[in-house]
Amino acid sequence: MTFPLPEAARKYVAAHLYDDPAHLALQARRYPHLPVPDLVRQIQARQKARVKLPAWADNQELIFPPALSVEQASSERTATYKASLVAGASRLADLTGGFGADSAHFAEVVDQVDYVERDPRLAEIVAYNLAQLRIGNVTTHAADAASFLKAANQQFDWLYLDPARRDQRGGKLFRLADCEPDVPRLLPLLLRHAPRILLKTSPMLDIELAIEELRHVRRLWVLAVENEVKEVLYELGAEPAIDPSAWL
Description:
Elements: H1 7-15, H2 21-26, H3 36-52, H4 54-57, H5 67-72, H6 76-86, E1 91-94, H7 101-106, E2 112-117, H8 120-132, E3 138-142, H9 145-151, E4 158-161, H10 183-193, E5 196-201, H11 207-214, E6 217-225, E7 228-237
Parallel strand pairs: 1-2, 1-4, 2-3, 4-5
Antiparallel strand pairs: 5-7, 6-7
């Protein structure tokens, strides 16, 4: 997939945005001049983003990665809430950048955001999309979290992580130590680069176990949208943690 999309490809996506992707794939021979499989994947991803990121789903200038990256992205509502927690910071690094939804929202309230993503193709897509969205205070880096921090020569006000929660077979993981990156193992490195860390986890993760694994939890938030819990946020810091028995 090249971008920006040629005009004929853009028109195809716009015309079939609400159609059944399986049906479109079967009709690919009708459009020999178009990369229909790639365009169908664009349509699938936009359809998945329609509820989470409606403004992005309707933006014909943007390029969408495979649907899994969209599924794992934060919604507009949860990303906006997370941004409110770090508002006023000078510099933040999003160490698990993904589709860039969180980085884009952090950029609205933080002076400088570093987007870090280990998949270079996804990082390339996000850099292109941020330019289309006229977001100029995000620097993209194709690197994993540990490599980026080890090479960094500056401090951050906040670090943000949303560890991948699927194994190589696509199964979901529920312990922080089994996710990628392994935040408990990386904590010494993380805390050397920032006084505050904001960590997003699945609502399926055992909160008491997470507090025990992390040992630096200062605060936590359980985020729900329309009475459905979507994610749990932990604020981590170097100082001694608040006694978890007070809020469990």
